[in-house]
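So, read this over?
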Amino acid sequence: MKITVTAEKRDMKGTGASRRLRKNGKIPGILYGNHKEAQSIVLDSKTLHLQFNKEAFHASILELSTDGEKESVLLRDYQLEPVRGTILHVDFQRVNQNEKIHVNVPFHFINEDIAKGVKLEGGVVSHIMTEVNIFCLPKDLPQFIEVNLENLELGHTIHLSDLKVPDGVEITALTHENDAAVTSIIKPKVQASEDVAPSSDDSAADTDENKTDSKDSGNEDSQS
């Protein structure tokens, strides 16, 4: 299902203009790429936030409708307000269907609870990567790459070269001979016992204290 983003062209630029837009429930953005001039745009804040929270919004070819003109685009960058997490600015890149693109897509990890290293050997799953950069034509772009942990044993690791990717998709790191680790199953950390054995110094102190008590008791008996 294609996600359609609605925008309007804008002429007013600068920090002051962007601040006024945000106060009025709008978000400034820019559209660029595909050998065309960059175009400043503005989007509805409430609608964009709803779309932004969907995983597919970040790794899909989107349909951007600007004043009725529709183009295929990718979300390329965004700025968030550091405290509230609201969107301050978005960048969209036009997509040429005949040109390959680089996109980060998320991993979907499946069968973690029945993985051999977890179910039979008591290990825990450690995710080393959560997304990966791929290279493909827009029509071949997957929304995610599945990582199946069912047969993964304790102490073993799944690398990029172990992943099954759709036809026409290349993992960028592998083209540079970087077969990075994606996930593994490791031994759980052993928690320290709450009952701490007394140290040798403490034991010695207790012994000396007992000797003193015995000596004092003996003196009291002889005096009596």
Remarks:
- Residues 129 and 182 are 5 Å apart (CA to CA).
